[in-house]
Amino acid sequence: MEVAAVCALSAAGAEAAAKEFGVPRSFTDFAEMLDTVRPDLVDIITPPQTHLDYIAAAAERGLPIICQKPFTRSLEEAVKAVRLAEEAGVLLVVHENFRFQPWYAEMREIIGSGTIGDIYQITFRLRPGDGQGEDAYLNRQPYFQNMDRFLVHETAIHLIDVFRYLCGEVVSVTAELSKLNPAITGEDAGLILFKFENGSRGLFDGNRLSDHVAQNRRLTMGEMLVEGADGVVRLNGDGELFLRAHGQNQERKVDYEWEDLGFAGDCVFRLQRHVVECIRQGRKVTNSGRDYLANLRIEDAVYRSSATGKRVAISEQSRSDA
User: Fold this and answer.
1) How many CB atoms lie within 10 A of CB 314?
2) 6-97, superfamily in CATH?
């Protein structure tokens, strides 16, 4: 796999990125780049307001697409983007990389093997500890402070996808969101209860102000527990997994291989590798644009539930139609 060209909104930005990563060509016009280079795959990592137009341009040229999240500016735009790609017969993938973190892949194997039996509940406690005070997020992602919708739209959406990856489709949500840090615009704390199609439950318990025990609190951003009829699997903040059989008091550590490279177990590379391998081998990706619409519908339901104080059902039609 070779990066053939880079495009940015400014010439200086494009040239700097090309120089940093050894890319032979740089552009400021997206369509011009596509027509000149004719890449085999386009990875869109520009701001969300450009995504729909860039997806349309790539789809018109029959090029497979990876698009960074936030996918688009709205659910309506996301539906349109999916339709554009499908009508053109091109692959559209959303860069949702949390499900490619190696600990979740291992947890999926454990669940699928039946080791912990039928799943009762999955719980994630988000505690990155980066949201306190007037300077919260300014050193990394300052735009976080001004987002009208923050915790769920920017962060919990990752765990919505992971919950679906591990436990299946969501049929309803009940949510209560709040703001703990007055220096920001959107919500930064919340409790979300999920009901899954198979009858199990999920709990997202998150705030960005508290922290958790970890050498690098951005590695997992929190801790997970999956509880089943025959046992429990636990994820800690260092990416370590532990199994405990039902009725036992001792855990055993799960031995599995992963590398502490890049972000969160090199999940960005793992996602890109998955897409390239699927294209080369003619296999179906696990994270298509159409599949991602389910995450956005759940996100929308979370905000509606918090606003109304009521449980919100996600209809079968809305879960299947674009």
Assistant:
1) 20
2) NAD(P)-binding Rossmann-like Domain (3.40.50.720)
Q: What is the mean pLDDT of residues 36-56?
A: 90
Bridge partner list, 223: 125
* Predicted confidence (pLDDT) per residue in 236-268, tens digit: 999 999 999 999 999 999 999 999 988 999 999
Question: What are the domain boundaries of the chain?
Answer: 6-97, 98-266+293-308
In this predicted structure, the answer to whether residue 322 has a pLDDT above a threshold of 60 is no
To 5 degrees, how large is the angle CA 32–CA 35–CA 36?
80
Q: Give residue-wise pLDDT tens across range 208-217.
A: 999 999 999 9
Q: Report the CATH number of the 98-266+293-308 domain.
A: 3.30.360.10
DSSP state of 268: H
Query: 3-class DSSP state for residue 77?
Result: helix
CA 208 to chain centroid, in Å, comes to: 17
Helix (H) or strand (E) holding 196, with range, is: strand 189-196
Q: At what angle do helices 157-167 and 102-113 cross, to 10 degrees?
A: 30
pTM (predicted TM-score)? 0.90
